Amino acid sequence: MYAPNKTDATKYNILFQLLALPTAYKGSEYTYQEHSKTTERILNIAIGDERTEKKWVWHPDLKEIDKKARILPPFEELKKRAAVIAMILEDEYDHIPEEKRKNMEEFVNAAIKLAERLAEIKAKGEKATRHIKAGKVPEFEEFVDAFKKVAPEEMIVRQKKKPSAKYPKVQKQIETEPRTKSLPEDTKLEVLSILQALEFADYSEKAKEKALGKLASMLEELSKEKLTPENLQKIGLVAFAIGLIKRSEFERVEEIKKL
After folding, report:
1. Burial profile 127-142: b = 16 or more Cβ within 10 angstroms, e = fewer
2. What is the mean pLDDT of residues 197-217?
3. N or C: which end of the chain has fewer CB atoms below 10 A?
4. Model pTM greater than 0.85?
């Protein structure tokens, strides 16, 4: 499957990463391979053959012509299929309680809006995180609210009770001690998307070289940033993915998904 242009390719890529978030938690029984199948099901059902154009396309990863390529319709067309996508996810994400799955269409619509906004920011060569922290992406807040309505309870951070003032010195130490943060989702999803593309290419040697090149570039960029616990986690994940590809231990993708 290929997007009709670079802008829509970015939107499609971001959207499917966002739609995968309800499955990205430790303990999830929904595997990475199952998510790949869900993505294909969305493309085949929500879009379908009749909405795609069949043509020969040069495959940049394999460096050869893909004679079975299908060109996806403009992203605007996909937006009209939000209700269908929601129905597919309700059926696929059966690990999520039924009462939460009823909110899936709201989640899909919020994901579409955020994907468009993030693609717009990326097209300007700017970092989305800066805009989000500055409160300039209201679509992000809307997405978080919609996401909470479908996310398994294990993913929702509960407010912890305040420690007792009975032992003030201990309390102060606990409050000032830095907390261990979970693995940054943006890096996790970017690494998984690279590995998914590699899977679609049937783990060919050319595709491996392309994936390793992308991961090496990520590693180089991360190494230029200020070293923080969060950045160190990102570096470790990318390095792990590089080693995984070099050793052809693709079954260990599940370990990344469950982090």
Report:
1. ebeebbeeeebebbeb
2. 80
3. C
4. no
